[in-house]
Amino acid sequence: MNTIELDNQYVASTYKRFPIEIVSGKGSLVKDVNGKEYIDMGSGIAVTSFGVADDEWIAAVEKQIHSVQHMSNLFYTAPCANLAKALCDKTGMSKVFFSNSGAEANECAIKVARKWAAEHKGPACSTIVTLEQSFHGRTLTTLAATGQDHFHELFQPLTPGFASFPAGDMDALKKLCANGTVAAVLIEMVQGEGGVIALDPAFVKELAAFLKEQDILLMVDEVQTGNGRTGTMYAYMQYGLQPDVVSTAKGLAGGLPMGATLMSGKVKDVLSYGDHGSTFGGNPIAAAAALSIVERLTDDFLADVTRKSQLIRSLLEGAPGIESISGLGLMIGLKTTKPAAEVLAACRENGVLCLTAKDKVRLLPALNIPDELLIKAADVIKAACK
């Protein structure tokens, strides 16, 4: 049996995989089992921040493998501590809890919010409010937080204590908060799974002011938007926000499983001994990998991410078959005249791998993708959209 046959027989049928087996790659180029080369415009859904088999990433991982691959969190390890400091230095946050995924990072954020609210406002204050069309994970609790009904249908009953409102509708939020039971509001600055839609700055400003006035925590889900993806370390920085809690994952460790929940001074001491834990959270290898990513996200590098975003947008804007472009930085959504699946198939045939989000084509290339590959991929995408 070949890989596809083995996968179909033995792996749970939760993914609608493309009919391609990827076996190797370097940077933003990957090869399938037949030797065909593709420009990778998805980077593992915003995970391989510096592309496939990045030399600095490999060196950091390999060095740590030869030292210690894992210790329980009953012991200190330098990669975990150094990564936490680096993240706090770059954000102004105060403490970090490490986990293994975006869903886990959001679970931690929810626990922080509920404990903080219980201690400061009473146990009845426990509701977490999110936006409609949001996506926060696939555990039962983060599914409950996700503001899309179709994710809920098969898994009732979900964890209680969540409510959603349409982005931009402050009146709806104020109604939800009127009874004094809202502990926190959790938002994505760009709703990735919701269609790569960036939030309106005026709405965000009004939201933040209202939450501060009401002493409700502001939490930002930066699982997909974080770690340089949108042209700043975190997307909330482009909105002038100072969140109380930030969750992130995906591109943080460049391809190894890692989530992080960043806590501001306001909530940094909410979690105490025994309140939370993770066997693999802060794993030395994952932390060493993440440190090799975070240290390279300098102001100059992030400015170049923005430049690359402007480059590909200029190449695609107004092209036949492309109706609109959304997103921030190198997190881009294309509304196409043709069905997105049809565009993706044509792109694959011609050596470019893209993704979808709702009815859009989604582009999430490596942050350091060379200009020449970006231009070549744009040409293939434009041809597929005609």
Note down, in words, how this protein is organized.
Its EC number is 2.6.1.11. Keywords: Aminotransferase, Transferase. The chain has about 375 residues and is of the alpha/beta class. It has two domains: about 5-55 and about 300-385, Aspartate Aminotransferase, domain 1 (Alpha-Beta Complex), CATH 3.90.1150.10; about 70-295, Aspartate Aminotransferase, domain 2, CATH 3.40.640. About 35% of the residues lie in helices and about 20% in strands. It is built from twelve helices and 17 strands. The chain has helices at about 5-10, 45, 55-65, 80-90, 100-120, 140-145, 170-175, 200-215, 285-295, 300-315, 340-350, 370-385, and strands at about 20-25, 30, 35-40, 95-100, 125-130, 160-165, 180-185, 190, 195-200, 215-220, 245-250, 260-265, 320-330, 330-335, 350-355, 355, 360-365. The strands form four sheets. It has a seven-stranded mixed sheet with strand order 4-12-11-10-7-5-6, with helices on both faces. A four-stranded mixed sheet has the order 1-2-3-15. The protein is globular and about 60 Å long. The two termini are about 40 Å apart.
Key features of this structure:
Aspartate Aminotransferase, domain 1; 386 residues; alpha/beta; four-stranded mixed sheet; 17 strands; 12 helices; transferase; seven-stranded mixed sheet; 2 domains; Aspartate Aminotransferase, domain 2; EC 2.6.1.11; aminotransferase
Report the end-to-end length measured between terminal Cα atoms. 38 Å
Roughly what percent helix?
25-40%
Portion in strands: 15-25%
**Total domain count:** 2
| Quaternary organisation of the protein chains | single chain
